[in-house]
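Table 4 source record.
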Amino acid sequence: MLARATAATPWGIEARPVQVEVDVHTGLPQIQIVGLADAAVRESRERVRTAIKNCGFDLEPTSIIINLAPADLRKEGNHLDLAIALAMLAAYEQIPQEALAGRLICGELGLDGAIRSVRGGLAIADLGRRLECREVLLPAANAPEAAALEAVPVLGLRSLAEAVQHLRGEMVLLPAPAPPFSIDLEVGAPDLSEVRGQETAKRALEVAAAGGHNLLFLGPPGSGKTMLARRLPGILPPLSLAESIAVTKVHSLVAEEPPAGLLRQRPFRSPHTGTSTAGMIGGGSNPRPGEASLAHNGVLFLDELPEFRRDTLEALRQPLEEGTVSVVRARARLAFPARFSLLAAMNPCPCGHLGDPRHVCRCPPLLIERYRGRVSGPLLDRIDLHVEVPAVSLAELRSSAGESTRTVAARVAAARAVQLDRFSPHTPTPTNAAMGPEQLRHFCAVDAGGRVLLDNAFERLGLSARALDRVLKVARTIADLDGSDAVRSSHIAEAIQYRSLDRRVSR
């Protein structure tokens, strides 16, 4: 007898449908799996057969062929066990075939019949919505995550026996409730008021948060670069529902435990300097998202920027421009989202004390040039703000606390609201940093004084066309923070001041 069930396999951050066909016929007792399955899927025949036996189902030993369609789609992971088991039981007439129709089924089976979690539960629920399924059957551990989509009924299952009872109508299982989506401030998050001094750097951090700009801190060790960086997520606006779904889809693919609902905090990723290119942008034989995608809709912090491998840094140029990472393999081309705010920090020289009045730098000019040359000009062009963070004086350390994260976050939220009104008809990413050429001409028109400043900066600092556009975008953000409809010369002047590395090169 032939039976069918619908399952899913991961495909980037999404899921692709897989039709599980099981045919039982007379012949030597064996189980064959065909349809471009990887090792984990091929091994499922032993897990499934043992789980069925240990759950008390007595199946006559016959020849079983399991086809996974479409045949040219590679199936990988542990997602298909439950669908294979239920299709086998339907082929043996242990459950009605029509009970499997209209249901999307995924889960890994233990030898005792327990159903274990899989990766990408939210993507599977989204696939169920697109397929207009009446139910999605998932492991109980994945149910809160998948139910958060609120697009299709999600049933959390704990065992194969429970799944069979539900499909036979012997047990009524209720859909998992969607966890509430609320916006809470992160408890115990570091506050901006804890950073003493560094008013210029704090202002640059606010500008970067308000416009979604990339930012580079340049200063000696101990000046507070990392402290400032770790306070950026706190002043960013909360994740919207759509952003939260996108973030949860990515993290669900790599998390050891399924998320208990939608992630509500913006990601902050700080990879080690030894991170490989695949670790940074994603890849592997079974492509998984890298640090750039895990920072999607959040912050990617690269401390000690010149210490990263050159090829790893250069690989970031595409996601910085396009907001996506493309991973090409022989049988597939996958795209992972990677629209993040890049925040980097570096020392001014190998010893770190160049320009520090309290320490003497003995690095020769050639060594300094070689050290800075580890970060290419094209990558620096894609960083909107280059800000010097000098060593903090004793008087600044003993000064009173500055503005809190909550105060700065309110100004950032107001500036983002202005951009949302401005760009909502034009772009899916409503920030000044994401403006295209046409939007730049329309929204960043400057007065005569500002034009003179831009012309002088272009000639004296040797700015590239890309760097000049980024100066205009930063000026637009400063104007939004200032509550100004027009970009004035004062906004242009402040934006130019945030190109420290260009000013150094021009000297």
